[in-house]
Structures are given as C-alpha cells and as structure tokens.
Amino acid sequence: GNRINGNGATLVFTEPRLGGFGIENSQDVVISDLTFDYDPVPFTQGTIVDLTDDKRTLTLDLDDSYPAFDDPQFERADIFASIHTTDGEFISGIRTDGLPIKRFSSYNRVEAGQWELTVAESSTVRGLETGRKLAIPSRDPPDGSTVLRVARTTTPVVESVNIRASPGFAMHVLQCESPVLRNITVAPRAAENRLIGSDADGIHVRNCRGGPTIEDCHVARLLDDGIVVASLAMRVESVVDSQTIEVVDFHGVRPQ
C-alpha cells in the first residue's frame, strides 16, 4: 500500500477559505501522524461588551489576533454566531424557544478591535448578555473547503491525525470502500483560547461501501455535527433499458 506518514508534522494553511489535503481514486492508502491547522483561523471571536435595551444591537470586542469582519474571508460568509460562557462552553438552547445560534443583518466597525452587530429579525435575542462570548465562522466558503478529504478510494486508513480548525468539514470521506478512521481529533488544543474547532462537521462519511470503522476519535467545539455516517440517494430521471438508468447528480454524489 501507500503510506503518508507525517512523523508528527503540523501543516498550517494560510488561506482560511480553502481546504488543503486530498486523496482521490486510490487504494490501500494510510495517512498517519499529522496535524492540520490554520493561520489565520477561519472564524473570529470576541466578548459582548455592550447591548441595547432590546438586545438587537451589540458591541463585540474581538479577542487579540483574531480576524476582523473586513477580512476577505467574510466577504461571502453568512454571518452567524454561537454563544459561549466566559470559559468557552456553548450556551445550550431549546429549539422551540429559538436556536441559540444568532444571525446578523449588519456589522460595522466602532473602533479598533470593536464592532457593532445588529441581530437579524429571524433570530431571537435569547442568551445574549454582556460578558458572554461569540464565535463567528466565515462559513459558506468556496468549494474544496474540507481540511482532509478522501474520495473514491479502496480501504483507506486515517489514524493519529489532529485537525485544529476547518472552514468546512474537518474530514470528509466520500464513496470509499471500507474506510478506517482511528485516533482522530477534531478540536482546538487544550491550552488555546479558541472557542471552536471546526466551522462545520467534524467527521463526515458519505456513500461508502463497507464500514466505516471509526474508533478512538475525539471531536469537540464544533459548529455542526460531530460524526455523520450517511448514504444519499439520487433521483432516477429515466430508465433507458434493463441495464441503464439516467440519474441526477445530487450534492456531488456520483454513481458507483
């Protein structure tokens, strides 16, 4: 087989709108002992330092070294935020009372490091309090935003891999045969003050035959699902003959 051994190396991507590592149309590939990170990270974060009486407008004081909203990564982003306690824990919520995720209709610079954000009418203001923290991803990046993508590969093995930040899926395994994912961490380092570890799913496995085997993995502080294993169907457009059908390519799923 083919082995990519990182020997403990860290790959740091400097374009926060793009992914970085992909294997496609291969077989018996082993990827191990690697860490992936971003600088700058594909999100920003800060502390709510002021709120209007109706809580519809807030002032956010960005944490040091995190990107501002005029950074190019936010040009296409759907600006929304997760709410956190001062020590970084997510503020949970009940769906019928309105999701704790907040969307914004505008954002404007107040002064260096501070921005004024207006909560969109589609969002409740529940959970917003001065002193609490917000994490705001630059989600909706261009295609190819997965940090580690393995597609149409037979018996791939990914082990001892750390993903510290991601603009999209941290890891995407697509249309593979019997993939093995072992000892994978999708989360910030414990010593860092980052509020989130990925802007989207941690480990997303889609339309794979056999398996997958997922063991000894750790995912934390994600802005979407932790681990997803799914098979998506395609719509049959027409039956050409007993051996041939026409289908619609749905969300990048190809016939196998």
Describe it.
The protein starts with a strand and ends in a 9-residue tail after the last strand. The model has no long low-confidence stretch (mean pLDDT about 90). The chain is globular. About 0% of the residues lie in helices and about 45% in strands. It has strands spanning about 1-15, 20-25, 30-40, 45-50, 55-60, 80-85, 100-110, 115-120, 135, 150, 155-165, 170-175, 180-185, 205, 215, 220, 225-230, 235-240, 245. The protein contains no helices and 19 strands. Strands 1, 3, 11, 13, 15 and 16 form a 6-stranded parallel beta sheet that branches. A hairpin with a 5-residue loop joins strand 4 (about 45-50) and strand 5 (about 55-60).
Protein traits:
single chain; mainly beta; six-stranded antiparallel beta barrel; globular
SSE order, as H and E?
EEEEEEEEEEEEEEEEEEE
In terms of structural class, how would the helical and strand content be classed?
A: mainly beta
- Roughly what percent helix? under 10%
Overall number of strands: 19
- What is the percentage of strand-forming residues? 35-45%
List unreliable stretches of 5+ residues: none
Q: What is the distance, rounded to the nearest whole angstrom, between the alpha carbons of the first and last residues?
A: 23 Å
How big is the Rg? 20 Å
Average pLDDT works out at: 90
Query: What coarse outline follows from CA principal-axis ratios?
Result: globular
Q: Number of DSSP helices?
A: 0
The largest β sheet comes out as: 6 strands, parallel
